[in-house]
Design goal:
alpha/beta; Inosine-uridine Nucleoside N-ribohydrolase, Chain A; 12 helices
Length: about 300
């Protein structure tokens, strides 16, 4: 059994990523920490606790930072909807599981300090919680065996011309992670856009015929319609691609690079700047997802949704 901690700004693609990991018999989610990003923290908490109640999650859930380290919060509600879970119909029931704590930074610190071996963190939003741990307890950096993050870009951005959303929301947190030399694997926009989901995938999910299948199909179709209102275009699987790369490592190829984050540029703040000429020009400090096998990485995403729909 492999153990991990998931840090998330719970929208639909985060939910799909958690369901993917939860469906893996060889992985156990030891904790879930929540961070503002897709939506304000109160909305993220509501999404996570409603998801936990509906799908029967047993891992402790901790509320984390409600704002970036050094700037005002910007959300993706203009794209994802006020609840960050755009749907073609139904939404999660209102029943909520309890929150384990309101201090995710302390909870993650305790988890790392108690770990017998370096642990895996799957980060699906801004890196604010992780950075806050490092700033408070720099000695815990050595307890992270792998930080696999959906964020950044090796090319153009989506929040701006230069910056990917998770990086742009809190670029200081990304640079803090780099400064503390965590073993970072970045699954950026360019890799995620190689793994896509279609309206037909929602139809196949709905055909399972259960109540959960219908709800998840509505959420999946709502997600697909972000790319095109009529659902005719495929939509990139962002957070689930990072989770799939974790549990199906043969599905992703990686390149070593040296990365810094632009913190000051008026047009480029949040840009993940990559120097590929390693070790000639700089020492590598990140592995960057480069070439995705769409077939291999789509499979655990769709299987995770189907498993949750059938349970």
């Amino acid at each position: 059994m492999q153990h991990l901690w998931i840090d998330t700004d719970m929208g639909f693609d985060d939910l799909a990523a958690v369901l993917l990991v939860a469906a893996q018999p060889s992985w156990q989610i030891d904790g879930l920490s929540l961070v503002a990003g897709n939506a304000p923290l109160a909305v993220v908490i509501d999404n996570a606790l409603r998801s936990a109640a509906y799908f029967g999650w047993r891992m402790p859930i901790h509320a984390g930072r409600d704002r970036p380290l050094a700037c005002a919060l910007v959300t993706a509600q203009n794209i994802l909807g006020l609840d960050a879970m755009a749907s073609a119909g139904r939404s999660l029931p209102l029943a909520r599981s309890p929150l384990a704590s309101t201090d995710a930074v302390a909870a993650l610190s305790t988890y790392l300090a108690a770990a017998a071996a370096p642990v895996t963190i799957l980060a699906l939003g801004p890196l604010t919680n992780v950075a806050a741990v490092l700033l408070a307890r720099p000695d815990l950096a050595s307890q992270v065996g792998q930080l696999l993050w959906m964020g950044g870009s090796a090319g153009p951005g989506n929040h701006s011309a230069a910056a990917e959303f998770n990086a742009a929301v809190d670029p200081e947190s990304v640079q803090t992670v780099l400064d503390h030399q965590l073993p970072l694997r970045m699954v950026g926009l360019d890799a995620c856009r190689q793994v896509r989901v279609h309206a037909q995938d929602a139809q196949a999910l709905r055909a399972l015929g259960t109540e959960r299948a219908g709800l998840l199909a509505d959420l999946l179709l709502g997600y697909v319609r972000i790319a095109s209102p009529d659902g005719t275009l495929p939509m990139a699987l962002y957070d689930p691609t990072a989770a799939a790369a974790l549990v199906t490592p043969q599905g992703m190829q990686w390149r070593a690079a040296h990365m810094v984050v632009e913190l000051a540029g008026h047009h480029t703040r949040g840009m993940t700047v990559l120097e590929w000429r390693v070790p000639r020009r700089a020492q590598a400090n990140v592995w960057v997802a480069s070439l995705a096998d769409e077939t291999l990485l789509r499979a655990p995403v769709l299987d995770g949704l189907a498993s949750a729909a059938s349970a």
